[in-house]
Specification:
The chain has 2 helices and 8 strands; from the N terminus they run αββββαββββ. It is mainly β. This is Flexirubin biosynthesis protein. InterPro entries: ApeP-like_dehydratase (IPR016776), HotDog_dom_sf (IPR029069).
Length: 151
């Protein structure tokens, strides 16, 4: 089992159930990340068995935050015990939603860092994200995130 499979993503994102929209990090480096999310019927963004647009955007934001958030953690901190972050969407430049998946499906989200500005207190970044169900694209977007370490 590799490090990513052992990683509990909930320890690295500020979100908790029922608002956690990422289950696993599939791959990550300084410029790209890929995540998966199993959509359960009791998810707060599922209505009439469909995972809605707001859920897709939130999944994209949580996926994107992993790229910049990763830089705040030390490589050996697999438990996320030494760092706590807050983050939020500071702007959505564009979003296109092609389809919404049904409960019971797994979505794969892939994000790329486009730009990043760091200060001693926070990071502001622009990222692109695409979400897929199997080979069908569900969403494409470009958003700005604000990420800050909580002392």
């Amino acid at each position: 089992m590799n490090k990513l499979q052992k990683l509990d993503i909930a320890k690295f994102l500020p979100h908790r159930d029922p608002f956690l929209m990422v289950d696993k990090i599939l791959s990550i480096d300084n410029n790209h990340v890929s995540t998966s999310f199993d959509i359960k019927s009791d998810c707060i963004f599922v209505k009439d068995n469909v995972f809605n647009e707001i859920g897709l955007v939130e999944n994209a934001a949580q996926t994107c935050s992993a790229i910049v958030g990763k830089s705040y953690f030390e490589e050996d901190d697999l438990e996320g015990n030494r760092t706590k972050l807050i983050g939020f969407i500071s702007g959505i430049k564009k979003v296109t939603i092609y389809n919404c998946p049904c409960a019971g499906k797994t979505i794969i989200s892939k994000a790329t860092l486009k730009s990043r500005y760091d200060t001693e207190q926070y990071s502001i970044c622009t990222l692109e994200c695409n979400i897929y169900e199997e080979d069908k694209e569900l969403l494409s977007c470009e958003m700005n995130l604000f990420i800050q370490e909580v002392k």
